Amino acid sequence: MAWNKVAVVGAGLIKMGELFDQSYEDMAAGAFNAAVASVDKGFDPKGVEAAFVATQRGTLWGQEGIGGNTVPTAIGLAGIPCTRIENACPSGSDAFRVGAMAVASGVHDLVLVIGVEKMRDKSTEEGLLSRAAAGHPIYTRGETAPVLFAPFATRHMHEFGTTREMLASVAVKNHHNGALDPYAHFQEEITIEQALAAPAVCSPLHLFDCCPQTDGAAAVLLAPAERAHEFTDRPVFVAGFGVATDHPYLHEKTSFVGLQATVDASQRAYAMAGVGPADIDMAEVHDCFTITEILDIEDLGFVEKGKGGVASLDGETALTGRIPVNTSGGLLAKGHPIGATGIAQITECWWQLREDAGERQVALRNGFALQHNVGGRGSGVSVVNILTRNA
Amino acid sequence: MGGHAYLHGVGAAAPGWRVPAADIGAAWGRTGGRGTVAVCTPDEDPLTLAAAAAIDALDAAGLEAGDVDGLWWGCTRPPFAEGPSHAVLAAALSLSPRAAGALTSGSAHAGMEALLGAADAVVAGSVRTALVVVSDGLRPGLGTPLEARTGAGAAALVLSAETGPAALTVRVTRSRPQLDRYRGDGEVDTRDLYDARLFREEMFLPSVLEVAEHLAALDPRAWSLPDPDGRLGKTVARQVGAEVLPSADVYTALGDTAAAAPLLGAVGALDAAGIVAVVGTGGGRTTGVVLAVDAPVPGATIAAHRLADEGRPASYAELLRARGQLTPSGETIPMGVPPESALFARGAEEMVQLLGGRCADCGTINTPPSIHPTCIACGGSKLEPVHVARHGVVHTFVVNQTMPAPFVAPLPIAVVDLDDGARVMLQVVGDGTGLEIGAEVDLVLRRYAHERGVPVYGYKSKLRAVTPAGGDA
Predict the structure, then answer these.
(1) Which residues contact B230 (CB under 8 A, 6 or more apart)?
(2) What is the domain extent for residue B374?
(3) Residue B355 in contact with partner chain A when CB distance is under 8 A
(4) How many beta-carbon contacts under 8 Å exist across A and B?
(5) Residue B335 maps to a domain
(6) How much is the pLDDT for A134?
(7) What is the CATH number of the domain that holds B229?
(8) Alpha carbon separation from B355 to A49, A252, B196, B448 (Å, rounded)
């Protein structure tokens, strides 16, 4: 039986991109207003009892030392309880989980979970360096973000014969989906030839194997399941969630063909929701790099270990495929404003489960959608949330 | 009293890049220039070269780090102008924290001073086994005649009072209070002070000839002679009747390696019996020593091979960038963890000694110890510090092509399974050419960064190549 104690009654986001003209606060207000406007039967913003804010890079990106407390003022709710959640790339999805637990506990009824991230207020080089120089002075020296995932591509290719073309097929699919998503950072199709010919970023990953640096914000409104119908006749329920950690440094990994945190988080979420991978109609998964999506679909149980590349090339994860993945365009096309990413993925799942996704709409068979992030220095944390339209 | 200091092993190291001397002169509108100069890659410096040569010398002598109780290091310009140069090198070699010795510096004579200091200590009995390391990689002034001559390299000797295949039997030193090659306090580049003719006639020849003629009386089989301008070495050789001059080949291949030059020039002659005369000069002092070789000194062949390695051809622009003489405009972006932070203080020893924590319960080696109070495999809390193995096999890797300064792209990084079962992820020396899963690598000390004025050292993987001698390069 699905957990289903908490409902998502509203969800929204702003158009992702290089939002040089918008402040952190502008973006937060935009996402909050979009979520409020999405509530079918209307929602009084003053009804929000508490907020959980996901911002991952605040200490580096101009939000030094202020926790989550600029957000209530920015959205006109100064005074409410507000807590910032920072848990690497899954910050947004973990804030969602924490918000759901706050509602389920009975402490708060109406909770805002909002992810906001300013990635472009500092230069590209500073963004790269903040990563390359963080952590242990030697053991992590030079580890920009692609260095955390490219070794898995090298090894996956070595063990399973995965090819660059298979990696590129993930990018082609997600850019195709992004072209159908008005909120995506990139809304243009790419060809497999373009992807293969693009310059190397961190071999074996090339330009289109990597997600961009994106500013963005997304927000959801949570309510107790029993109150959901005050706000909508088409609520989406939190069926289950799981979080798992793994050793934080890459040299501590025993396997470079999978991410154990994803496996563990998804198994906990599946058990809580009472479903398995075959019950999932669509998934928004962490595709910071093409190889990451290939690892994800294996580790989440959608395809057999080692077959992720072939399945992607064969279209199994396309909008019309057996298990549509990253219908929003994913991190690769929609963008990866880190703290906002998980909430934006949940927004896409919410649209899909309510059959509001327009040209991107997938066929629903079982009424379950899965959202996933993995991250941290060496993919040391993963969060999986499972949503359902089944009451 | 009595007795000699004996040589038990020798090692040498040359940096990774070679720049044709003619290219350097050509940049300033001059023609000519013979041979190449050896240049430190951005992650090498006199300390990493010293460590490489010292490890070879210890291996050749069949000794462990723990057998050495004194380290003498001669280096004109050690990496920390004021700071722990000697202590960092000693730690990188895993010497006992009780090791004696000294750092000599300030002129190209520093190498001979290190050799004599070590010899005195072993003869006096205050040190049983001394390691002598000489290394340099100067930064010459742009456009100076010196620039097209300045190279880099290192040599190392293991000395003790126990009889060995070669002995240091004669020593002569002469001092004259005169300037020669010069760098004042606050200056960053080394320069020639005098007119070339004035230097030759009034400074160099009088001192060097006096010492060399003293050694010539012993009729040496081979010579190592200083050659600051590409001609003076041969001039001295003619005057003293030196026919076998292995140092000339080293100067042609590596350039002037300053404090390292006298011993580097002698390394090739230590593989056969006979008298080898070595002369070093600088800072107003000139010293000559005689190395009486009875039998080939262990390591001499591999050392000669190291010096014969042609390295990678590099451009003048690469040289300038590596030496910090060509820098991008604008402020450099500060990095995340400054070297003055407590994090660096905690990690200082484990980084240069390459330490791991071995779990007493399951044997797993956890690296680095400072972030592993608990075993990653079994959760055990009894972890004992160990030196991790320095050889392993690549499990997986990347080559990062997008690294902003101060990093240099392409930057290869590999996950390596070491012989003792430890797994590490470290940068790889070079541009990634030849890097593949299953490749064998050695871990070598490199300078990871030079940040806010502080050199930061740690280990990198280096693809293993097999030497003709059958040893491992």
Answers:
(1) B34, B149, B251
(2) 355-388
(3) no
(4) 121
(5) no
(6) 65
(7) 3.40.47.10
(8) 52, 15, 50, 17
Is the CB of B398 less than 8 angstroms away from the CB of A139?
A: no
| Per-residue confidence band for A121, with pLDDT thresholds at 50, 70 and 90 | confident
Q: Is A286 a catalytic residue?
A: no
What is the per-residue pLDDT for B446? 95
Residue whose entry in the numeric block shows the structure tokens 């359902």: A388
How far is residue B236's CA from residue B295's CA, in Å, rounded to a whole number? Answer: 28
Give how far A376 is from chain B: nearest CA, Å.
16
Assess if residue B334 is contained within a domain.
no
Query: How many whole angstroms separate alpha carbon A24 and alpha carbon B277?
Result: 73
CB A126 within 8 A of CB A49: no
Contacts of B423 in chain A (CB under 8 A): 251-252
Reported confidence tier of residue B340, pLDDT bands at 50, 70, 90: confident
Check if B332 contacts A (Cβ < 8 Å). no
Minimum Cα–Cα distance from A146: chain B residue: B400
Confidence band of A168 (pLDDT split at 50, 70, 90): very high
Marked catalytic residue, from A82, A89, A202, A349: A89
Within-domain flag for B232:
yes
Per-residue pLDDT at B239 exceeds 50: yes
Residue among A175, A185, A336, A372 flagged as catalytic = A336
When pLDDT is averaged across residues A138-158 and rounded to a whole number, the result is 91
Q: Answer with the residue of higher pLDDT: A248 or B49.
A: B49
**pLDDT tops 70 at residue B149:** yes
User: Which residue from B336, B344, B413 is facing A130, i.e. has the nearest CB?
Assistant: B336
Residues of B in contact with A128 (CB under 8 A): 402-404
**Most B-contacting residue of A59, A128, A136, A138 (CB-CB within 10 A), to test interface:** A138
Please name the member of B404, B423, B427 whose beta carbon is closest to the beta carbon of A129. Answer: B404
- Residue A89: active-site member: yes
Average pLDDT value for chain A: 94
Q: How far apart are CA B264 and CA B247, in angstroms?
A: 7
State the pLDDT at residue B13.
98
CATH number at residue B426: 2.40.50
Inform me whether the pLDDT recorded for B386 exceeds 60.
Answer: yes
Q: What is the pLDDT of residues A185-199, one digit of tens each?
A: 999 999 999 999 999
Contacting residues of B for A152, CB less than 8 Å apart: 396
- Asked whether the beta carbons of residue A202 and residue B400 sit closer than 8 angstroms, the reply is yes
B6 interface with A at CB cutoff 8 Å: no
Asked if B24 and B47 touch (Cβ cutoff 8 Å), the reply is no
Q: Is there a single domain that holds both residue B263 and residue B315?
A: yes
**A200 inside 8 A of chain B by CB:** yes
Do residues B189 and B147 both lie within one domain?
yes
pLDDT averaged over chain B?
Answer: 93
Nearest chain A residue (CA) to B426: A139
What Cα–Cα distance (Å) separates residue B263 from each residue in B53, B58, B67, B153?
12, 16, 23, 10
Q: How many domains does one find in chain B?
A: 3
Tell whether B42 lies on the interface with A, counting CB pairs under 8 A: no
Higher pLDDT, B95 or B469: B95
Q: What is the DSSP letter of A215?
A: B
In DSSP notation, A55-115 reads -SSTTTTT-TT-TTTTHHHHTT-TTS-EEEE--STTHHHHHHHHHHHHHHTTS-SSEEEEE
Examine the domain organization and report whether B432 and B283 are in the same domain: no
B288 with B189, same domain: the answer is yes
Average pLDDT (B228-243) is: 95
Q: Are residues B132 and B234 in the same domain?
A: yes
Q: Name the residue with tokens 């240069």.
A: B352
Q: Could B399 and A202 be called an inter-chain contact, meaning their C-beta atoms sit closer than 8 Å?
A: yes
**Residue in A134, A142, A252 nearest the CB of B427:** A142
Contact with chain A for residue B444, Cβ under 8 A: no
pLDDT tens-digit profile of A266-281? 999 999 999 999 999 9
The CATH classification number of A6-123+211-388 equals 3.40.47.10
Indicate if B207 and B192 belong to the same structural domain. Answer: yes
Q: Looking at per-residue confidence, does A139 or B28 come out higher? A: B28
Whether the model pTM is above 0.80: yes
Amino acid B46 reads P
B327 falls within a domain: no
Kindly give the pairing relationship between strand B152-160 and strand B17-20: unpaired
